Structure formats: C-alpha cells, structure tokens
Amino acid sequence: MNDKKKDFVNLIDFIKKNGTDIDLILLRKAYMFLEKDGSEIEKSNKIERCISCINFNLDSITIISSLVNFDMYDDGFIAEEFGHIFVNIKRGMKNVDNILSVCENVDKQDFDALKKYLIASCRDIRVLILKIIDKYTLLKEGNFDNEDLKKDFAKKIFNIYSPISEYLGLNVIKSEIDNLSFSIINPEIYERILEVIDKDYKEDNLYSDKLKKYIKDKIDINIDIFGRRKNIYSIYNKIIKIYGYYSDEFIFTLNDLWAFTILVSNIELCYKVLGQIHTIFTYIPEEFDDYISRPKSNGFRALQTTVKALDNKLVEIQIKTYEMHEYNEFGPASHISYKSGNSKDQFDWVKNLSFSGGKDISGLKLFEDKIFVFTPMYMVKQLKKGSTPVDFAYSIHTQIGNSIKGAKVNGKMVPLIYQLSSGDIVEIIKDKNSNIPKKSWEQIAQNPGIKRKIRKFSKEKDKVDIEKNKKEKDKKIQNTNISKDPTIENNIIFDNITIKLSKCCNPKKGDSIVGRVGVGGVIKIHKKDCSMVLRSNKGILNFSWK
C-alpha cells in the first residue's frame, strides 16, 4: 500500500488485492468516524494497524475494530452504529489497558498467571490480538522522540507481547514481533547477521529453487513444497542456545538456516514422502523426529528430518498435512492447550480467526473456574473461583497464612470469608504474635491442599495444648502438696481447677482436711473442724495430705 496516500480508497484497493473477506459497509463507517473525529496522527496509526491486521489474515471484526477509536464513543453509540460485539471489544480493551498499565512496570511477576488473567478478563480474544497488533504497529512506525524511548518500548513488546502471542498460538505474529524488536534492541548484531547471510542470499535462493524442483521431480506423490529462511532473531537465538555466545562463523553451522516444508493431504502420505526423501538423500538418524505419532507437548505435529541434500548441504525438512501446518502456524501449537489442561479442540478459534473470514468467536470463555488477583506489589496470583483471603495468604507462603490477623481488598477491610474476584488487590494483615491457624479457617479456605495444611497445624496445636494443660495441672497439684484421697467417694478430675489453702483456719500438714468449692470453681482447703465447714456441708469434698 502507498504510504503517502493512506486514505480509504487505497485501503480498499489493498483489501481487494489481498483477497480479504470483510464487511465493507462497517469498514466504511469506521473510517468515516475516524476521519471525522480523529487527528491525522490517529488516522495514520489506525490505518497502519488495519493494514497489519489484514497482513496477518485476521477476521473481519478484528480488522474493522482496528479502525474504531473506542475511547471517543460510549457503549450506546458503539452498539447502535456497529453492534454489541464491538461493545464487548471496547470494554475488553479498557480492561486489558487497566491491567497492563500496572503489569508492564512490574518486575518478576507471575507471568504465566498474568497471561491467563488477561485472557479471562478480555473475554473476546480479539481484544488481546488488537492490543498486540497496536503495539507492533507503533514500534514498526517508529515515531519516538529518541532512540532510548524506542529501545525501551521494543523491550516491553519483546518481553510481554511476544510471549502472549506465543501463548495464543499466533506464531506468525510472534515471529514478526521478535525480529522487529531485536533489530531495535540489538541493532549491531542484527545488522551483522543480516550482512553475513545477505552475501549468500541470491545463491541461497537459487539453491532453494533448485532443491524444490529436484524434490518435486523425484517424488511421485502430489505435494506442495516451500522453503523459508530463519529470521534474524531466530538465527541469533539458536546460536546462543547451542554455543552460549554469538560469532559469525556459527551461522552456517545451523542445519535449519533454510527450513523446507512439504505438505500433503493425509498422514499416510506423510510417511510415504518421508520414505522417498530418505531414499533420495542420506539422512542423519539422530536428527530425525516423528512428531506425528509422538506430538510435542505444545501440540506441534510433523515428521522432521535432516538430510544431506544437493551439493552435500545439510537441510532440515518438515513433512506434514495441510491441517497440521495450519495448526502449527496459527493454532495453539505453543503452550495454551497443555498448560490449561484443555483439549486442543477448544482452541479452534485460532484457526477460525485466521481463516474463516469473520466467523463469530466472541463466545469463547476460558478459565472460568479460576480467578486472578494481585498482591500489593501487583504480583498476579491464580486461585480457585470462590477463594477467600485465607486461600490468598497461603498461596503466598505458609507462614503468612498461619499468621493472618485480617485482610484488605482494594484498600478496604473485609472479613476472612469474603469471596475474592479477578482484579482484586489483596493485602494480608499479619499477627506478629501468632503463627498458628485457627480451626475455623479450614471451613473458610476453598483449596483442598490449604484445608489439609490448616487441619494439620490445628491438630499439632491441640497436642501442644493438651501437654501444656497437663503440665500446668500437675504443677498446681504439686505446689499445694495435696492430692485426692483415692479411697473416698467424691473423686473429681483436676483439669483446669485451682486449689488454695484457706486463710481462716490455716491448715498444715498432718491436720484432717476437707475441700470446699467456692466462687469460680476454686477449691479451698480447710481443717475439718473449721467453723466455716461446720456451718454447712454443701460442696464439701474429702482430701488428704500426700
């Protein structure tokens, strides 16, 4: 598209050339409002964002949303002009902005939980994709006051938005973000790698074309084959992983500097093509992997082999079906399916988003059995839905859980039975004089593991209390130097009972004595002939000296 004329006519031409299926009426309306209410800078940025969405084969609603300035209009206006699905996107954008405005500036946060929290918060996954595209476009446009600001922005995108793209399975977008960010963060090495590989670029292209033709001629199965050179960041990253440091000489030791992909219609043909490839070329046994029968934990499926191809060059070849290729490129072929414990079938929205041309995916709901809350330092904690401050405290550390005195949620005191919600900022107030949980907390906690932990500590406390009471009772009896007469009828149990010598008759060892129950259950020892005893025989117990 002509950068000098970023108007609607050029945008429509670009869409038609790209073959994008889109609702042109809504697109025209979005552009009309942008032109009417937006500044020149806003118009330029949003058109660039729209172009990026088209280039990444995103759906109609995402492309149209990229032109809408949601901040300028209320929900009612958006619903009337565009529809309720765009209201959801508007709300989701605001929610994600609020979360990221905090999290972008936090070090060592629980990033895995943050990614899940973002997905749960936005409800429509297109919100996150728009946010990723927005940041990528701003970085690509490069309108920064100085290089330091641009580099800081690139680091933020690389550290936050690239992992989110990978987490969503949007590997094509992730690759673009990584390469662009790396060119800004480390321009010297980026340019050096580019210079080294560009020397042989024309030759490599000729070799690639020659190899593709050779394989097609030799294989008696209908295939599609293409080659793709690793991007600059991927080359650098692999060199660092293998050698620990970068040097130009390591570049051409990579056997997948050019990776070739062969696509066929079904799994059976994958193995047939593999057999023929291994017949044509010598393969390296230790480099062969069957990711079809044993998929990677992230869902990636393909036959992957390294062969000595034409001119004895080492070349990596992946063989897969069209469906596998689609899934690996755009679906959850990263981390989301196995980390969340959901089957990959629940993530067909990624393929729909990239290929369906506008299929409604707004109904996707993830992680509904979980909540995501923040510590006062904005660390993200993932908890079970219905969790309380007790669960939160123990999720940080057992000792913090054991010493809860109270809790604040969003700056206000709440009871420990309070149910937390995603986005809450929770502060635990500790009792400095206690590190033992209360029994009642077991009923308050929702996490079974935390319940067991509280139960264990409570039992240990009960044991300590029993031993302590026994020692105190024995000490009291010893101090009075008296005991119950085992032969008398009125024996009692001495747990938590105080025994004192009365001052009225001052009994001494050898005197005949009795006990009289007084106020508060205190037993006072009297001589048998004490006037206080003779007045009434109620509450009198027989005692003797040890």
Beta percentage is: 5-15%
**Helix share bin:** 40-55%
Low-confidence stretches: 1-5, 332-366, 480-492
Number of domains: 4
Q: List the quaternary state of the chains.
A: single chain
Write down the Rg.
37 Å
Anisotropy-based shape: elongated
CATH homologous superfamily grouping of the largest domain: Hypothetical protein af1432
The largest pleated sheet is described as: 6 strands, mixed
Q: Please give the count of helices.
A: 22
Mean pLDDT: 80
Note the gap between the termini: 107 Å
Could you explain how this protein is built, in words?
By secondary structure, this protein is of the alpha+beta class. The protein folds into 4 domains: 163 residues, Hypothetical protein af1432 (Orthogonal Bundle), CATH 1.10.3210.10; 135 residues, Beta Polymerase, domain 2, CATH 3.30.460; 91 residues, Roll (Ubiquitin-like (UB roll)); 65 residues, no CATH class. 50% of the residues lie in helices and 14% in strands. It contains 22 helices and 16 strands. Strands 1, 2, 3, 4, 5 and 6 form a 6-stranded mixed β-sheet that branches. The chain has a 5-stranded mixed β-sheet with strand order 12-16-14-15-13. The protein has a 3-stranded antiparallel β-sheet with strand order 10-9-11. Strand 5 and strand 6 form a beta hairpin. The N and C termini lie far apart (107 Å).
Summarize the structure.
With 546 residues, the protein is an alpha+beta fold. It has helices spanning 8-18, 24-37, 40-55, 60-65, 75-81, 84-103, 111-122, 126-141, 147-167, 171-185, 187-199, 201-218, 232-243, 267-280, 322-330, 336-340, 349-355, 389-396, 398-402, 441-444, 448-480, 531-535, and strands at 224-229, 258-264, 282-283, 289-290, 303-308, 314-321, 370-374, 380-384, 404-409, 412-414, 426-430, 482-484, 499-501, 513-517, 523-527, 540-545.
